[in-house]
Every structure is written in C-alpha cells, then in structure tokens.
Amino acid sequence: MAKTRTIRVSALSRVEGEGGLLIRTKGNAVEEVQLHIFEPPRLFEALLRGRSVEEVPDITARICGICPVAYQMSSVHALEAALELTITPEIRRLRRLLYCGEWIESHSLHVHLLNAPDFLGYESGIALAQDHRQEVNRGLRLKKHGNQLLEVLGGRAIHPINVAVGGFYRAPRRDELAALVPDFEWGLAAAVETTRWVAGFDFPDFERDCELLAVTHPDEYAMNEGRIASTTGESWTAAEFQSAFAEEQVAHSTALHAVRQPKRTSYLTGPLARVNLSRDRLSPTARRTADAIKFDTPCRNPFKAIIARGLEVINAFEESLEILRSYEPPAPCRVSGDKHAGAGCAATEAPRGMLYHRYAVDDGKVTSATIVPPTSQNQRQIENDLRVYLPDLISGDDAAVASACERLVRSYDPCISCSTHFLKVTLERG
C-alpha cells in the first residue's frame, strides 16, 4: 500500500503577511496542496460602509504598507466613476508618477531581498548581503528612491496622505520633483544592471500553460487605466469584472479565491502577465534590455517573474524621469463635483497584479464596497502550479520538498495581508 506523507510549512518566510503550506502525497501522487492564509480577516469592505468618499483613499491605503498607492488609486478611480468626475491630463500624469514610485520600491525590495536569495542559495537577504553586498546595497538604494518619490508626491512613504478623490490635496513644487532627477538617472542605470543580473540566474525548467490576465492600454504600459485582457484573446471593461470573475471561500484560507467564469478556472496576474500582454508598450530602455537578455515572450515560467519585475523597474524609472523633467504643477490639483448617488468600479495594476474596486455611494457616503486583491486572484493558480511542480520533487526529504515549494510561492510575491480583506460569514441558528 502506498504511504501517505504530509509536509507542512508552518510559516512562509520572505513574504508579506502570515501564511503556511500543507502538502499531502500518497506514494508518488499529489493528493492535496493548500496555501494556508491564516491572517485574520480585516473586513475593509464593512469598515468603508457609511464613510464619506473623502475618507476612502486614506482607509484603503491601510490595507497594505508596501502597496498602499495601488489601493488608493483603485479607490479614487472607482469613486470618480461613481461621481462622474473627470480628472485633468495633468492630474492623471501625476498619478502615474506616484504609481511608478510604488512599483520601484515594491519590486526592488522583492527582487533583492525576498526572491534573489532563492536563486543564489541563501536563507535570507541578510545572508545574501554578506557575499553580495554591492547588489543588496543597490536594491536598498533603488527602494529608497521609490520611497522618496512617494514622500514628495504622497506626503509620506508609508500610507500616503496626499491622494484625494478628484486629484491631490497639494501639488508638489517644480523644484521638489526636479531635485529627484539625479537619483532617478542613477536609478535607471541601476535598474538595467539589476535586470541583467537576475536574468543570469539558474531558473528551474517549469513552464505553465495557464491563463494570464492584466490591465492593458493601447498607448502606454498600463498601470491605472485600461481594459482587462487575457492571453486567451478575451478582454473586458472594469464594469464587466463581476460577470467575468467570481470569488469563493475555501476552508483553509481567510482569503477568498477568485476564479474565471463560467468554468471557475484559475488564472494568474502580476508582472509576468503584464510583460506578456504589453511587452511592446514597455519604455524604450526596458524593451532594449529585454531584447539584450533574450527575454522571449510568451514566457510562462513563474520563476522568471523576477526578470519581469526588473523590466518594470526600468520602465518606472524611465517614465518617472520623463515626467520629472517636464513637470509643471497642475492648476487645479483637484477637481470636484456633485455628490450624487451612483456606482463605479476600476481595475488597476498593483505591483503584484490586478486590483479591482467597486463602490456604491449616496449623499457623499459609501453604501457598499467590493475589493478584490491580486493575491486573492493568484492563490488558486499558485496551488495548481504547486501540484504540477511537486511530482518531480517527491523523492526528496521533507525539508527539501518544503524549501522548493516555498521558493515557487515566493516567485509570485504574495501579499497575504492584502488578501485577507474580507471573509463571508454564514450564521445558522437552531
């Protein structure tokens, strides 16, 4: 009789938030894979009900300390749709600049301290720094410059406070942004070095034929606006999200699993999906770097997402420099309108993938809120990928199998705190 074997990772390391992993095999067959997310539900949708629309960007920013801008941008776009507000091109440009700062700081942290140790045989970023001090210092400086941009434009690096429905509470002065140009010129060159560095890693031969999804735009590398596109050739507006996708609860996770309708299949969002779907709209330096390192698309190896992140850091620095060099303060820096009843939604691209918000408002207050984070959308695909990856590992001991599976999970850069935004509760009374 085949022996049943259970492997547990009680706490995943080098990911944001609290999660674990359960693997159960029988002989050489994989019986069960569960990505356990046990961080307590944070109930943000319920917290937002009854709040004024002005409070929403600051509340949603608290969902994550690493990607607060993504939550703010999604919330303001959805609320502006509900209130039928149209922002100016100058405000839109500043919002992309703010988003660039977040992509820089988030990707730089993940690439250098969270993911690179897996490819170079270190248990942590601290251990990596002992032998690769130059690379780790480069990553810390790249992250620092992303944070500096958030401070100048958002008011502070963690949970920015300058984002408002309709624009910004205050527009930065020209000299404030001009002062960042020299560091961002260094950052662009350093991002190219980083991407060439990670492209030389030894990647497992693991290709997945899964559906990739991302927001796309015909004229730019999409961050905060566009249609949701799939590698199947289908596409949707943000308003069609809830008919094309659904969330369902599973017993082993406080994060809901998002699936494609009507077949309830898994899919993947994030930098690998974005580069696959929008490579031709990367910045010129990012495209040249992709060609130089022979990063061919379509690429469906999740371990190579670290290269896609590097390309996106190049893209963010190059776009930031273009805006910083030509910046003129917008007047006004915020548009306003009537606070009538309505409903609106938006899909933007957080560093880890697509993020969806929908709000209904009445008399300036939120009456309902729906937030679908990237990790909720990726969780089922991560589990499915582990099931396919595991058979070649089963002959190893428990520690080796667990370590290899952790490396695969980290390649998706899950943000577990983001994912536990809501939990459906059913009350039965006898």
Description:
It contains 15 helices and 13 strands. The protein is globular. It is of the alpha+beta class and 430 residues long. Helix 4 packs antiparallel against helix 6, helix 4 runs antiparallel to helix 12 and helix 6 crosses helix 8. The N and C termini lie far apart (44 Å). Strands 1-2-3 form a three-stranded antiparallel beta sheet, covered by helices on one side. It has a three-stranded antiparallel beta sheet with strand order 6-7-8, covered by helices on one side. A three-stranded antiparallel beta sheet has the order 11-12-13. The C terminus is likely disordered. The protein has one domain: Cytochrome-c3 Hydrogenase, chain B (Orthogonal Bundle), CATH 1.10.645.10. Strand 4 and strand 5 form a beta hairpin.
Number of helices: 15
**Any low-confidence stretches, pLDDT <50, length ≥5?**
419-430
First-last Cα distance: 44 Å
Secondary-structure element order, N to C: EEEHHHHHHEEHHEEEHEEHHHEEEHHH
CATH-defined superfamily:
Cytochrome-c3 Hydrogenase, chain B
| Order of neighbouring strands in the sheet with most strands | 1-2-3
User: What value does the Rg take, in angstroms?
Assistant: 21 Å
CATH topology: Cytochrome-c3 Hydrogenase, chain B
Largest sheet: 3 strands, antiparallel
Quaternary class? single chain
CATH class group: Mainly Alpha
Helix content: 40-55%
Q: What is the architecture at the second tier of CATH?
A: Orthogonal Bundle
Tally of DSSP β-strands: 13
Q: How many domains make up the 3D coordinates?
A: 1
Strand content range = 15-25%
